[in-house]
Amino acid sequence: MGAGKSTLSRKLAQEHQAVMLSEDDWLAAHYPGQIQTFDDYIEKSRLIKPFIKAHVQSLLRQGLNVVMDFPANTCRQRAWFVELSEAVRATHQLYYLDVSDEQCLSQLAKRRVEQPARAHFDNEVVFYQVSQYFEPPEESENLTLVQVTDVSGSGLQ
After folding, report:
1. Which domain of life is it from (predicted)?
2. Which domains does the chain show, CATH number per domain?
């Protein structure tokens, strides 16, 4: 949360003329006002995954580039992305946003001001609840990894 996934996703979609899919957008469209807790998010995120997978695979089969603004905080989440792309013989890249908790919390504070409707979820308590599950990517995961330390800058570092 607050690492810069959406900012980077928009930038990558524009640079690569890609279709961008945002989990936040899909969840808001399909479950408006129904995600009040982290458990709500987990449940609803799980429910949309089969539809997202089929849609993305269809786009990839058409030869389109796809940028997915979705979390990949755990080995299991990342395996889903790898499986999704490998099933249609598409290449993939995982952008690992290697930023500090302080940077994320600062961004969340800014977001609460800019988007007050998200303040109930985008807060320090939920951030730490989500962060406790984070597992750094490992070589054994078969990832094409791009490490990013500065999302706000003009280039990837």
Report:
1. Bacteria
2. 5-148 (3.40.50.300)
Low-confidence ranges of the chain (pLDDT < 70): 152-157
Sign of CA dihedral 104, 109, 112, 114: negative
Quick one: which of 35, 36, 40, 70 has its CA closest to 53?
70
Interatomic CA distance for residues 59 and 106, integer angstroms: 35
Q: What is the pLDDT of residue 37?
A: 86
Dihedral, CA of residue 82, residue 25, residue 21 and residue 75, to nearest 10? -10
pLDDT of residue 155: 45
CA distance 115 to 1: 14
Question: What confidence tens digit (pLDDT) does each residue in 5-15 have?
Answer: 999 999 999 99
20 bridge partner residues: 67
Counting every residue, how long is the chain? 157
CB-based contacts of 30, cutoff 8 Å, min separation 6: 44, 47, 48
Instruction: State pTM to two decimals.
Output: 0.86
